[in-house]
Amino acid sequence: MSSRVPHSTPSVLSGLLATISIAVAACGGADTASLGTSGPDESTAPHPPPTVTTTAVVSSTTTVAAATTTTLPNEGWTTSQIDFQPASAAAAGDRLWLAGRDEENEFILAFTLDGSTWERVDLVGLGLPTESTLPSAGAIRHQMVLGSVDDTLYGVFAAPPQQGVSSQGAGADLWLVTSGVDGAILLQGPDDTGIDQRLDGPKNFRIMDLGYITGENGRVHLFANGQWWEPYRTDDSDFTAVSFFGSGPWTTFSEDQPPGPELRLAGAATLGDVVVAVGLRGNRQAQLLSWVSDDGVTWARGGADAPEGGWIQIEDLAAGGGRFVAVGSERPNADSTPSEGFAVAWWSENGQEWNRVELPPVPVGSLVLPNGVVWLGSRFIALAGSQFPEAIWTSTDGAQWTLDKADGEYFVPGRDVVKWGDRVVIVGVDWVTVSPPNG
Description:
Layout: H1 10-16, E1 19-26, E2 54-57, E3 63-65, E4 69-71, E5 78-81, E6 85-92, E7 95-101, E8 107-112, E9 117-121, H2 123-126, E10 144-149, E11 152-159, E12 173-179, E13 184-188, H3 190-193, E14 198-199, E15 204-216, E16 219-229, E17 238-245, E18 251-254, E19 263-271, E20 274-281, E21 287-293, E22 300-305, E23 311-320, E24 323-331, E25 342-348, E26 355-358, E27 372-375, E28 380-385, E29 389-395, E30 402-406, E31 416-420, E32 423-427, E33 431-434
Parallel strand pairs: 1-16
Antiparallel strand pairs: 1-17, 2-13, 3-9, 4-5, 5-33, 6-7, 7-8, 8-9, 10-11, 11-12, 12-13, 14-15, 15-16, 17-18, 19-20, 20-21, 21-22, 23-24, 24-25, 25-26, 27-28, 28-29, 29-30, 31-32, 32-33
C-alpha cells in the first residue's frame, strides 16, 4: 500500500526539505472555485525556511529480536512476529522502517536490515511530546505515516499539542522525522517546519487523518484527509493541497465541491515531477477519483467510472515504467455481497485518464482480492497479502496481467504493502512478511 525518514546532519536538512507539499481532503470548501487556483490569502503567509532543532545518532535504540521466523514452503517468503503494532511502513536505502505503537500506546519508530531483528529510535529522547498541555478537540485519525523520497525516509507523527506550538485549538502538533547520513535522526516540530494541523482564516482548515507520503527529485508530498469548516456549517469533504517550497509562501488549493460523501484517499505515487493521488467518495462509490499535479500548486482532476451499476473499492497505487497503476476490486452493484467481488486494476500514463482491466480470477475463492501493488523495476506486483500472499498478479505494463499464485479462499489483508529494494513486504497487525528477491 501506498502507504511512508533518513539520517541527516543540519547541513543537509535544507536540501532534504527543499519542497514540502501537503495534500489533504478537506471539508466545507475553501475560497477557491476551480482546479488549478490558489486558495484564500490568509493561507499564503510566508514562513521562514525550516531550521534544525534536534539531531541524534541512532545510539539510543532498543534491539528487538523477532519471536519467530518461518520460511513459507516452496516460496521463499518469510514471516516474523514483532512486539508492537505497526501502522505504516517505508523502505529507505537498505533499511525497512515501521511506525506504530506499543502495548502502552506509545509511538514506535523502528528499522530492520534483515527483516527479523528490529532497532527502535528513541523519539521521546529526541523531544517528541507525550503529554498534552492543551485540550484536544478534533483528534487526528491514523496519527503516523512514513514514506521514502529519493531514498530518504520521511515520517509525520501527530503528537499531543503543546502550548504555543501550533495554532490555538489545534488537536495535535505535527512532527516531522527524517533520517540522513551517518545514522542521524532529525525530529522537527511545527515551529521549524511550518506544518500545522490548523490554518486560521475566515474558513479554518484542520488535518483530520494522515494518509500517504510520496515524492521524487527533492519534492515531498504528504497526503491526508481534513476539513475546511465554519461553525455549524461543515457539510462536505474536498480534496485540498497546501504546498510549501523552501523559502516561498504557503499556497492553498481546494476544489470546493458541492456537499457529498466523505472523501477517502486510497494511494499516492510519483513519476518524475508528476504526483498522483487516488481515492473514493463514500462507501459504495462508482468512480475512481484522481488528482494530478506537476508542481504541487495547481491540480487537475481525473478518474474512471465503474461499469454501469457497479461500484469500486480502491486499495493502492504504484508508479513505474511510465505508468500509474491502481488496484482494487469491483462488485456488480451496491447490493452485491462480498463473494461477488472481483479483482480489477486501472492504469494511466498521465494520472487523469484511466484504463480499466479485470485481473485473472482466483479459482479457489472470490474473496481473495488485491490489497497492494508495487513496482519492482521491471514489473508491477499486485497481491492479496496476509501473513503470506494468497494471490499474486504480475504485469510489465499494468494492462496485461497474469495470476502467478493462488492459495486459500479467504484472507485478512495486511495493513501495508511496500517495496524494499528488490523485495515485497507485507505488514500486518504484529508481523512482517518479506518476499525473496524479485518477489
